[in-house]
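Duplicate of #3305? Posting structure anyway:
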């Protein structure tokens, strides 16, 4: 089922071959520009996590306020991806990218200079708006500009940056906090934005949808409400409680808006913001499901790895982030390799290999992790999982973007990004909950002889147990040992659950995964004349 229009190719931009495709040198510049812009967005997702105590002291803010400063960026980003991706298709991808970079950069400067928590919250919200303008366009520029023979490799580079860029961003953020202070966290994203803006202004061609339909305003508004409501539930449920009034209201809004969005889009059919009928096709369904699970498991692993490095092994935030770099490097390398493998054996085989490898990595971590074994007990599993995630992300992204026509690549890219955001939120909420419940169940059996007050605090988490250990008197070392061992027990429970989810996904791919190479969206793109920038 397709909404493709007859091909209408623009005149060639300056420096490109006659058929309108930029030459190899310009394509490299375009790829660098969009990846630098993407890195700015990804780095800002995770960067503030390393500075939570500093922010609390600087603004005299509660933990709840600090979490909102962090989460409001992701909430704004996820909620606006689909409508802004669609607007980029209509308005022009280059103008949308440049405008997003300006909004994002100005908001970053304001955040870095923020005198209060209220100003910081507003700046982070506008950063999310700018990021929602940038992120889907970076991928849409690749899929609508690169020819078929080069597109897969370019998407592999993009997915590598999207997957591993968060770890690199956390490492650089932790280094900046250690070397200076939290305000310097915004220097890196702003600097990346400036570089991306200059490169995009000179090299990125413009393309846009020429549609005979009016913009789907109702679909856009219901999509915002649906995504915002569901992401709010996943972010706030663990903090407020799953039965808290605010959580239930968010769930009601999210579910109601989702049902309304699907019903409205089915009615709009070819004029819809997102043609939901396409989810009946193997490529879109398989790619979306794979990205959802892979990013969910990755986020859940990070929830466990950081406390393991810091609370169990006693490492600093900077060293803990550095410990993740081998996994990120292999993920980025495997993402680039995946496009070649997909061309040889097909997307289903490549995605299946990635899922099996990632599942094996999870199993290795679950089986080998220990307090005494330290970093070497988790490193083999981390490396194996990095390879598996890299192999699965690129063909999944290609499957999603290939399922929609060229003039809808902003929407396709936004759907890809929304799926990643939902997967991340789900992984943090669900695997984090399994980790917490596993820890509490294990630590209860190890608190004999510990004073009641210290024991109650220790049940809240491993960091709480270490903080209160000096109140346990002669049982302080026993409490520390019990908390660390219990954390590992809880982690193993969460990892084995992840292995089970990966196994189910693998079976799903075998039965309903994409069988053939994905369609070639760029050949069907409807372009306005590209600019003549050199």
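Output from current build:
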């Amino acid at each position: 089922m397709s909404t493709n229009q007859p091909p209408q190719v623009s005149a060639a931009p300056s420096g490109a071959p006659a058929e309108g495709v930029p030459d190899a040198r310009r394509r490299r510049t375009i790829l660098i520009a969009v990846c630098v812009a993407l890195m700015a967005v990804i780095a800002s997702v995770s960067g503030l996590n390393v500075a939570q105590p500093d922010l609390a002291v600087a603004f005299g803010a509660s933990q709840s306020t600090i979490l909102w400063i962090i989460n409001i960026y992701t909430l704004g980003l996820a909620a606006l991806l689909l409508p802004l991706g669609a607007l980029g298709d209509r308005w022009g991808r280059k103008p949308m990218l440049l405008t997003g970079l300006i909004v994002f950069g100005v908001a970053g400067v304001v955040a870095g200079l923020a005198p209060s928590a209220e100003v910081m919250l507003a700046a982070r919200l506008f950063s999310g708006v700018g990021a929602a303008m940038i992120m889907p366009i970076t991928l849409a520029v690749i899929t609508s500009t690169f020819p078929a023979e080069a597109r897969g490799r370019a998407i592999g580079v993009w997915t590598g940056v999207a997957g591993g860029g968060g770890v690199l961003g956390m490492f650089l953020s932790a280094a900046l906090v250690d070397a200076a202070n939290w305000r310097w966290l915004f220097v890196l994203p702003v600097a990346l934005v400036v570089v991306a803006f200059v490169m995009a202004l000179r090299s990125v061609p413009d393309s846009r949808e020429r549609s005979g339909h009016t913009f789907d305003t109702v679909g856009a508004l219901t999509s915002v409400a649906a995504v915002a409501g569901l992401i709010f539930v996943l972010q706030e449920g663990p903090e407020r409680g799953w039965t808290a009034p605010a959580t239930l209201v968010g769930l009601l809004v999210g579910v109601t808006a989702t049902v309304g969005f699907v019903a409205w889009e089915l009615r709009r059919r070819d004029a819809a913001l997102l043609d939901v009928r396409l989810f009946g096709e193997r490529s879109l369904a398989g790619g979306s499901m794979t990205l959802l699970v892979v990013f969910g498991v990755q986020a859940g692993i990070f929830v466990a790895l950081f406390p393991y490095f810091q609370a169990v092994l006693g490492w600093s935030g900077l060293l803990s982030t550095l410990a993740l770099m081998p996994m990120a490097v292999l993920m980025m390398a495997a993402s680039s390799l995946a496009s070649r493998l997909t061309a040889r054996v097909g997307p289903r085989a490549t995605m299946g290999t990635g899922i099996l490898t990632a599942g094996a990595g999870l199993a290795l971590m679950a089986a080998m992790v220990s307090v005494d074994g330290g970093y070497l007990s988790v490193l083999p599993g981390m490396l194996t999982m990095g390879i598996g995630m890299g192999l699965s992300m690129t063909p999944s992204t290609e499957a999603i973007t290939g399922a929609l026509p060229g003039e809808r690549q902003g929407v396709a890219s936004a759907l890809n990004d929304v799926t990643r955001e939902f997967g991340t939120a789900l992984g943090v909420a669900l695997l984090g909950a399994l980790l917490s419940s596993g820890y509490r169940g294990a630590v209860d059996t190890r608190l004999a002889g510990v004073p009641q007050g210290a024991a109650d605090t220790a049940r809240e988490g491993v960091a709480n147990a270490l903080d209160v250990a000096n109140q346990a008197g002669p049982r302080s070392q026993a409490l520390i040992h019990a908390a660390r061992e219990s954390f590992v027990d809880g982690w193993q429970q969460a990892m084995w659950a992840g292995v089970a989810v990966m196994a189910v996904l693998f079976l799903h791919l075998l039965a309903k995964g994409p069988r053939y190479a994905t369609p070639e969206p760029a050949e069907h793109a409807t372009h306005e004349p590209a600019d003549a920038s050199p």
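Confirmed duplicate; merging threads. The chain has three domains: 23-206, 213-273, 277-515. The radius of gyration is 23 Å.
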